[in-house]
Fold this sequence. Notes:
The chain is α+β, with helices and mostly antiparallel strands. 32% of the residues lie in helices and 35% in strands.
Amino acid sequence: MRVRLQREDFDVAAEVARLTRGRTDVGAVATFTGICRGSEAGGEIAAMTLEHYPGMAEAEIMRHVEEAQARWPLLGVTVIHRYGRLVPGDNIVLVATAAAHRQEAFAAAEFLMDYLKTRAPFWKREERAEGGAWVAAKEADDAALERWARPARPAAAE
């Protein structure tokens, strides 16, 4: 299980290769890559700055990776989250989950992204032509996280 917070970009294919290298038990890898948008709500975004509390952020993310492991029979997880100033088109986050079957890989990746979007200790500031502003949490993201309050059911084998 790997959690990294970093300023520099990441290579999705290289990270997936690292996650599965030498493994014959992995039957599925689900990935999600978040990318900095150039517009939101009809307005253009020039850049976004992500801040975090070093040490605490990694520990909190790892805690949720461990929760995902307890819910699903995962064979590997990689979470990479960037911080600093990002411009439209830049990678922000990668979640990659490996499992024997696709259902577990998909569910765990979605669970982790819902957590990262709503509860991970990051602060986001958008830069626009009219100035900068801190981004508030969205109710839809909180609602997505609520569905994980119930325990996961075992997925059927493929």
